[in-house]
Design brief:
With about 325 residues, the protein is an alpha+beta fold. It has helices at about 5-25, 35, 40-60, 65-90, 115-125, 140-145, 215-230, 250-255, and strands at about 100-105, 130-135, 150-155, 160-165, 170-175, 190-195, 200-205, 235-240, 260, 280-285, 290-295, 310-315.
Amino acid sequence: MSWPRRIIGWLGAALAAGAGLMSAAGLIGAVWGWADAFNSFAPVWLVAGWVGAGVVVLALPRGRIRTAALISAAVAVLLNGVPLIAEMVRTGREAPPPGNLTILTFNRWWDSPDRPGQIAVIRNSGADLVALQEVDGLEPALSRDLRDLYPHQIYCHPDCDTAILSKRPFLASGQDPHFRVPGGTGFLWGRTTAPDGKPVTLATTHPYWPIPPWIQRMQRGHLPTMIATANPEELILVGDFNLTPWSWAMRKMDPTLKPLTRRTHGLLTFPASWPFPFLALDQVYAAPVWKTVEVKRLPRAASDHYPVRVELKRE
């Protein structure tokens, strides 16, 4: 065997071994928040396992190194492929009746270089309600350029970065009184009327990164209390949760948000600046009264997150 081929084979084996090791380490995330961070990168480990296995099969002869690499790759494919497929197959669509409610949720990136482009995306979304995260610095533009379409706007102040825009007047609103980390979630809610003329409550949130884990753990523990204050029987909760569905943290959080259930399944939204996003950070939860018609990722809009447009109907 030539040395170039042998080196390529060893690199493939290293890739497969690394993917298997990271995937196995993610199992510890069930009890240790630091290790759970590995689970957020499940699509990366899945691809690395497949690529590593392919390179090893093509470049290495039969032997202990090849066998060990293939076992590691199989671990990566199994541990990451199962939860990813489970998320994907849960996605569904129903025939859209008239009078549906359309919502846009968008982490517009506080440091975005193209605010006019983001205004255009919001305007062209056709949403009845718009939930924004990382609004820092965008408030004057929203007030100036979108008042004709969304005359009713509420903002989370101080020291938090969320906003909700509505075509119809707000009947009530509120926010998380804990403004600063730790504890503050950026939770903001507004109650208005849907196209069917009945009340609807939209909330948005923007928890901190999962590292260090204790900060977001406190925020996740605070979310159920905030949901209880915001008309949970008709509530829709959207935002950048900085968590992926294949993390132990989100699996544990989902039941605590009842009666809301998650409507986004395997929707990759970050990083939008890369050719292929590999993290599913932006989520939609809704009360049982709301049935999912469509959840759609919109084209990138000068942000590191993709905008997400959700269409719901009242049961």
